[in-house]
Amino acid sequence: MDNTFGLAIVLVGLLYGFFIAIICGQRISERHYHVLAKQELTKEYVVEDRENNKNIPELDQSHITELRMLGLY
After folding, report:
1. What is the pLDDT of residues 23-50, one digit of tens each?
2. Structural domain for 61, as ranges
């Protein structure tokens, strides 16, 4: 009976560890995606002086949406 109890404790511990590993992996991948998205946005745009150049086109709506999701607009 002691052997079965010990096995149950080990299984519960393994399941708990697996659950925690999945949560940590998801958070790492979300953070990684967030960083990559910011890097991609910084590569895509050119900074121009709006005071000297009045003919700057507006951003696409999809870009504005993505910037808002990242908290940059």
Report:
1. 999 999 999 988 888 888 777 667 777 6
2. 2-69
